[in-house]
Known about the structure:
This protein is mainly alpha-helical. It has helices spanning 8-49, 51-75, 78-87, 94-116, 119-125, 130-144, 147-162, 167-189, 200-223, 243-272, 277-313, 317-344, 346-353, 357-389, 394-417, 427-456.
Amino acid sequence: MKIPFFNPKLFRLRQAEGRALLVLAAPIFTSLFAQQTLAFVDTVMAGRVSAVDLAGVAVGGSLWIPLLLFLYGVLLAVTPLVAQLYGAGRTAECGPLARRALWVALPLVLVAILLLRQAAGVFVIMGVEAAIATIAVDYLKALTWGLPAIGIFYVLRNLSEGLGLARPSMLIGLASLPVNIFFNYIFIYGKLGLPALGGVGCGWGTTVTLWFMCGCMFLTIRRVGAYTPTHFFDLSQKRGAQGATQVLRLGLPIGATLLVESSIFALIALFLAPLGAVAVAAHQITLNYSSLIFMIPLSLSSAMTIRVGHAVGRGRLDRARLVSHTGLTVTALIALATATFTLLLAGPIAALYTRDPQLILSVVGLLTLNALYQLPDALQVGAAASLRGYKDTRVPLLLVVVAYWVISLPLGYTLALTNLWGPPLGARGFWISLIIGLSVSALLLGSRLWRVERRLS
């Protein structure tokens, strides 16, 4: 019996592409998950000290994460640029392009350091409690020493992944976890003759770990033969002279998009700060868990960018469409599974982070809302990744601004902190608005992807 509208050949192609995406996404996921676990380790270890230490790390992270994601986003342009060069058989131009991306990374790092070292004034304006603000300021000062390392690491990792070589960053990410736990323990609890720094020690532990990751990635590019054809260390290679301009043109909209998205969460943390340590900690725990789960669609989206870029570089636009459509389908199915997991295990998940019954109750309520936003979140990040593979980044930035800043943030503020829609909902109001904002973003970016594919077909 034939199934109407069923195309066996297309089905087999999508099966094959789905497997290829998962194979490429697996090491990317492991790498991203390992790096995100650094924040998880900070959250758990600070929470074991006190709710104030956890809140200090959370409030500090509300400034650190948006700047870090902006840097990551700008340098993420290296991935599709390298992917298209590699797909077109111009591998020798990949290394010079990545070298010039370093000249983009270092000034951005310096600006980020200067901004983070002025954080005390921001916390005063936002009315953050003095005890929380003190921990947050010192935590950020410690982290600034690791910013140059993460900037260099992002360039080198994106060069590697643009070539389709995702395993090195996976292994480095896994190796970084015990390093981070060890140095967090040393600095937080004052071992080996050092003073006990509490939550601030998380910043120093992370900084040491970032330099470890940078050094490992540098040695990998230097010594592994698979990178030799890129001529990264061959300074006589002049090709790719416009690399810095290309990275900025493509990367600034990506970085701005991630900044727009992440700044929403940063503002939420700051808006909740006057409500006390429990409200901030509940939001931080939920956000931390959400970030861990988000590594799954994010890794798939990175694989989509790479494979779309390779296909476009080869002039195979039909293959590029197959990649994006298959990727969105796989991403949606996985998001439904993770949402179900979150709903069923919200209580045990909350208990992993804290022993405080009041805090556990608050976290369970937020995790329920988080489960509802995982599907639109996965779809919007997948659509944005496919657009990056086509080197389309400016219009997606505008669409995300509308979804987050025009719709989600004003709605969240009024739901959480005002009587406009009824009694203030606190953190729950912001998470409800995030579901709506992400749904709008998914619709707008999906529509943009359809238009781009139709125009190029």
